[in-house]
Design goal:
With about 110 residues, this protein is mostly helical. It has helices at about 5-20, 30-45, 50-65, 70-85, 95-110. About 75% of the residues lie in helices and about 0% in strands. The protein starts with a helix and ends in a 5-residue tail after the last helix.
């Protein structure tokens, strides 16, 4: 890399740092992506009859990976493995979304308020 490339990268990193500092009240897009995935997984995990939707997710995600050049067999196996991990009680669905939902259910069903 040339010196000008490093300067550009440093300037971009500095601009990003300043933007994040000025917008600290806004959630990071990666955090938003994570809780969206958690919410979708929690919905799939707890909704009766969501098996067909999960099968469609596997097929669509597999198609996306095949389009990127991965062999279909490996893509399908990895997508299914990740979805299985995500829907396990100790998987991704055990994060902040499930905690928030558990807290909400407790508040709605508890006769005492804290």
């Amino acid at each position: 890399m040339s010196t000008s490339d490093f300067r550009e990268r440093f300037a971009a990193a500095e601009a990003t740092r300043r933007w994040r500092e000025a917008n600290a009240h806004r959630p990071d897009p990666r955090r938003c992506d994570r809780v969206i995935v958690e919410a979708l997984v929690e919905y799939l995990r707890t909704t009766p009859g969501s098996d067909a939707l999960m099968a469609r997710l596997i097929a669509d995600a597999t198609a996306g990976l095949v389009l990127q050049g991965y062999p279909e067999e490996h893509a399908r196996r990895e997508v299914a493995r990740r979805l299985r991990y995500m829907t396990e009680p100790k998987g991704i669905a055990s994060g902040s979304v499930r905690g928030a939902l558990d807290r909400r259910r407790y508040a709605e069903n508890c006769p005492l308020t804290l």
